[in-house]
Amino acid sequence: MEFEIIDFHTHPFSNLNENLCRFPSSEMDKDFTLSIMKRYGVSKFCGSVLGHTPTTPDNVWEVLSSYNDTALKLYNYYGGSYVAGCHVHPNHVEESKKYIDKFHEKGLNLVGEIVPWSNKMQNTYNSDGMFELIEYFTKKGMILSAHPTPPDDMDALCESHKNTIIVGAHPGEKEQFTRHIERAKKYENYYVDLSGTGIFRYRTTRKLIDEIGAHKVVFGTDYPICDLQMYIGAIAHDELLTDNEKRLILSENAKRILKL
Ligand SMILES: [Zn+2]
Fold first, then answer.
1. d(Cα 102, Cα 140) in Å, to the nearest integer?
2. Distance CA 233, CA 186 (A)
3. Cβ < 5 A residues, ion ligand 1
4. Which domain holds residue 100?
5. What distance in angstroms lies between residue 222's CA and the mean position of ligand 1's atoms?
6. From the CA of 221, how far away is ligand 1's center (Å)?
7. Cβ neighbour number for residue 21 with a 10 Å cutoff
8. Dist. CA 171 → ligand 1 center (Å)
9. Which CATH number goes with the domain that contains 174?
10. What are the per-10-residue average pLDDT scores of the chain (260 residues)?
11. How many independent structural domains does the chain possess?
């Protein structure tokens, strides 16, 4: 059975500094990303550009805007294959809005992955600046890919933004996983993406679907941090999932929430 695959959670790069692979090889350039995606049958890959430049309160916007610029350049370079994700920052609301507009004008409806712990956001989504930004991009029909802050902070985010589609990344280990489930059950607008830590635990994906429904589970890898083929295999070859569940997770849900 062949499935269309959309990788909701990636971090494309244009140079070594933006390549978060632990063990990058010299062949990993812009074209490498496109070729590995094609090789494994991924039709579209989504997400923000990240990098190794350490952020400080003084330079964080300079760094994030350079990642946004790279994302827009890569969007042009990759054509329709890349759904670029936009960085925003609560201390830089007006500048962030300009980027939201730029991304939205191109039909890109993704904010994030936002990574509060590394981006000098005091590891919270619950700030006046962030709330203003969330309201701004929600009105445009854009959605948030969120690296999880502590579980109570994520709950508060969902509670105060019930009209925003929020996709929490990384199922994680049991405690974090349980909180993802409780949150997704309580909040219609909360989804879980499968990238990063979690699904190597046997029956995790099955459990997630049984608890929150396959329509709220989104396929992601965290490429190039994580290995594309492992995640594709973990879903496409999971004998505990039905073909219809695989279709929803591997592409249909991402298409629906990103309006692809
Ligand atoms: Zn990520």
1. 12
2. 30
3. 113, 222
4. 5-258
5. 5
6. 8
7. 15
8. 12
9. 3.20.20.140
10. 93 97 95 97 98 95 98 96 98 98 98 95 96 98 98 98 98 97 98 96 97 98 97 96 98 98
11. 1
